[in-house]
Amino acid sequence: MSPTSELLAQTLAQTGFHPRLPQQRRLYEAAKVAIHQQQLTAGGKLPSSRDLAADLGIARNTVIAAFEQLAAEGYVTSRLGSGTYVADLQAHSASMRGGPSHAPQSGRTAQRAQLAVRLSKRGQEVTRVAAGPKFEIQPFAPGDPDFSSFPLKLWHRLQNRVWREVGSDLRSDLLDYGQAGGYAPLRQAITEYLRLSRSVKVSVEQVLITGGTQQSLDLCAQLLADAGDTAWIEDPGYWGARRVFQARELKLHPVAVDGEGMAIKAADLATKPRLIYVTPSHQYPTGAVMSLARRRELLDVAVRKDAWILEDDYDSEFRYTGRPLAALQGLDNDDRVLYMGTFSKALYPGIKIGYLVVPPGLIDGFKTALYDLQRPGQLMVQAALADFISLGHFTAHLRKIRQTYGARRELLRRTLVNQFGSRLDGRVTISSEESGLHLVVQLPGNADDVALERKAAEAGIQVKALSTYYLSPPTRRGLLVGYAYCTPEQITHYGRILATIIQSEVRR
Ligand SMILES: Cc1ncc(COP(=O)(O)O)c(C=O)c1O
């Protein structure tokens, strides 16, 4: 067996090395890690697909597919008739200085540069940096729910029933565009859920079904603010909201966040916000819960400044101890809050169904705009979802995943703490709030969290540096570590590796 085959075979045999991925993807991941760690060096020749397949005891087509993926992303180059060679990633990154730092994306960056020539000024601004992480089924990717636990068979049954009814002409209207703010029984089911679980003050008329939070935010930005208006955003904060506001040409004003959520200072009050975007139940990404005093203060500021508060309640379903927190909207007596939620986390991201609760005075305008600007559809999925909620399956599913995620969170925390032991003398702390899909490992102010993110990526771990979520110069350093889409075996295996990587940086 060649040394390369042996190296890849060893990686593939590790417990916890992407056990749920298909063979071809596992091989690709193993090669990628080896290239990043320079165990396979630039210019080195890989075994032929036939030899590697024989050495690893897998199909040749599987190897070919993995090689093709590596070649497409710039990790290897194929020379006709000569074989496959490891690419020179250093040269690659040097040639694209000034762009995103990930070498294999250079092809895409070059493409972006070409496109920019034809884009509008706004288009160029929006696409200048691709901030959104692409979903990579990699350990510790923050924010990803475990959608392998989604009850597929049950969903299939509910969806089939809707299709049968459409086929027998009972509900052929479901094939039309969605009108009047979305499928009525779904709006009803969401209304009841929000009243009961989130203490939202809501009538069914106020609920609009959208294509997820991004679309809810975009509607708000379009209908409530004009180009040049100011939007207050949490700092650090959610890049997705920032991108929407930028695309609508709003001026971003970062407001610092502390342990009680958005902390408004005199300098902030000197500006005039039209929109204020907040995540009060579980600040993204720090995890802070907004205190009652801050909630009242924020509502008061919104009235005084004649601003709208956009409350993004993106993962409030995941609270592992105590009662669920009430939404900020429930405290609002002046119709200043637009409340938004999503099924991306509780069910699966690609469902792209969210909801927006608007104050009574905005209902007609928002319904008209939703229909005219979006021509929304997917009533079939909305109908299945309505049944899923009203028959009690949503609550049962939430109960189950809450338990699973709570246990995974605790396991990750324990693994990291045990590995750190007393060696780091309290210089590293782990966020203690009992909610959400990720925790924050807070590092000393001089730690280079971006370098740590890169090192972790080289070991096949996809954590995110806290400093990259800031608009102003970062005041804190840390790592966001997701635990929902990780088996317990992966959490212990990769948790130990991550802790070692952190130790090596913090001890220096
Ligand atoms: C803070 C925050 N809000 C909302 C969302 C979900 O948005 P959507 O419903 O568009 O999928 C995310 C997803 O990662 C998020 O992190």
Describe the structure.
- With 508 residues, the chain is an alpha/beta fold.
- It has four domains: 3-87, Winged helix-like DNA-binding domain superfamily/Winged helix DNA-binding domain (Arc Repressor Mutant, subunit A), CATH 1.10.10.10; 91-127, no CATH class; 150-393, Type I PLP-dependent aspartate aminotransferase-like (Major domain) (Aspartate Aminotransferase, domain 2, 3-Layer(aba) Sandwich); 397-506, Aspartate Aminotransferase, domain 1 (Alpha-Beta Complex).
- The chain is built from 18 helices and 14 strands.
- The strands form three sheets. The chain has an eight-stranded mixed beta sheet, with helices on both faces. Strands 11-12-14-13 form a four-stranded antiparallel beta sheet.
- The radius of gyration is 24 Å and the shape is globular.
- Pyridoxal-5'-phosphate binds at residues 143, 212-214, 238, 240, 279, 284, 312, 314, 342, 344, 349, 354.
